[in-house]
Amino acid sequence: MPEAYIVDALRSPTGKRKGSLSAIHAIDLGAHALKALVERNSIPADEYDDVIFGCVDTIGSQAGDIARTSWLAAGLPLNVPGTTVDRQCGSSQQALHFAAQAVMSGTQDVVAVGGVQTMTQIPISSAMLAGQPLGFPDPFSGSQGWQARFGNQPVNQFYAAQRIADHWGISREAMEQFALESHERALRAIASGLFEREIAPLAGLSVDETPRQTTLEKMASLEPVDTQFPGITAAVSSQTADASAALLVVSEAALKRYQLTPRARIHHISVRGDCPIWHLTAPIEATRHALKRTGLQMSDIDRVEINEAFASVVMAWQQELDYDPARTNVNGGAIALGHPLGATGARLMTTLLHELERSGTRFGLQTMCEGGGQANVTIIERL
Predict the structure, then answer these.
(1) Which is catalytic among the residues 55, 279, 354, 369?
(2) Are strands 363-370 and 303-306 parallel, antiparallel or unpaired?
(3) How far apart are CA 270 and CA 378, in angstroms?
(4) What PANTHER family has UniProt attached to this entry (predicted)?
């Protein structure tokens, strides 16, 4: 089977909600990553086969097929098409999978892939049922099929995060310690300049502005998001953010044609589902499925990027897969670096690739929980 290669990966800095990137139109935010990607590589812009972008809640400034509109707003050629993917939080990871599949099938040779989200302008799930409290949309009400299968069980991320914590015996204090470490890792990475190569500065911002100097005492003082979820506070949850990211995926023929040096080979792509009531547990079974398909063991995986939607999600995954926390999200995760929904999958892969190169290690695995009880898994091999 033909191989798919990653030649480049970059991202904007992550802007905090109402922060430095909050006034930038979503199309221009996406255009920034695409323009930087094209400028950094020698492929003529009119020879790209497609642009595949992830984005969630494609309304307002994010509407109108933002993959296509971002490419055009970047001043890039009219002949290159674009399509936008919504697999909830895994949207841009799925975009990467679609690009890899296109290259592996032999139907395309050069694909720009990535994602964009401006959560300041388009808050999470604002496309669902206007008037619902933030984080508690209910698109399932009135569906006879859904009610017959799942009844009135809550489909709620905070409920799921608390349920996971309870099931795996993860205390609030342990989650806060995990969150503190995420911030400390991110701050160390920034101070050491570890993100400099992967970030394309924007609007005067050259570093992520989401990591915080915090303490366990400050975290302990926070009220839960709801009394029903006593362990779930803002401190142990991912931050809403604004960002974009882009990667260049090519075939072996394109490597030769444009004299490119591949940085990684896409070793495996898959996606699996789990119970939507548990909502956030799919990375566990999805990772097991990927290992079974590849014949790899977790001991073969040198670095993991798993999205820190909530601390309990990652901690449960680590328990079930018996994986070393010291090799997981080594430069911080979404608790510190933010979770700009449609951009997060591409951001995680960008950071994973650069970390494999810094550490000189071979295999990296990326996974993340997604709405509806889903999870993508991507395994790359550094070259």
Answers:
(1) 369
(2) parallel
(3) 7
(4) ACETYL-COA C-ACYLTRANSFERASE, BLR7806 PROTEIN
Give tens-digit pLDDT for 196-219. 999 999 999 999 999 999 999 999
Q: Which of 32, 183, 279, 339 is catalytic?
A: 339
In whole angstroms, what is the distance from residue 11 CA to residue 254 CA? 23
Q: Does the annotation mark 275 as catalytic? A: no
Residue 289 annotated as catalytic: no
The burial class, CB within 10 Å (0-12 / 13-18 / 19+), for 349 is buried
296 residue type, one letter: L
**pTM beyond 0.90:** yes
User: Dihedral, CA atoms, 81, 87, 93, 99, nearest 10 degrees?
Assistant: -30
CA distance 309 to 236: 9
Report pLDDT for 130: 38
How many Cβ atoms are within 10 Å of 215's Cβ, its own excluded? 12
Mean pLDDT value across the chain: 95
119-162 pLDDT tens trace: 999 987 644 433 344 444 567 777 899 889 988 888 889 999 99
The token pair at 250 is 């090519």
Sign of CA dihedral 139, 144, 145, 149: positive
> Stretch 171-194: mean pLDDT, rounded?
98
How far is it between the farthest Cα atoms of the chain?
60
Query: Residue 8: in which H helix or E strand, if any?
Result: strand 5-11
Helix (H, G, I), strand (E, B) or coil at 327: helix
Choose the catalytic residue: 32, 55, 89, 268: 89
How confident is the model at residue 138, as a pLDDT? 64
Side-chain half-sphere CA neighbours of 288 within 13 A: 12
Q: What is the pLDDT of residues 316-360, one digit of tens each?
A: 999 999 999 999 999 999 999 999 999 999 999 999 999 999 999
User: In terms of Cα–Cα distance, which of 329, 337, 341 is closest to 115?
Assistant: 341
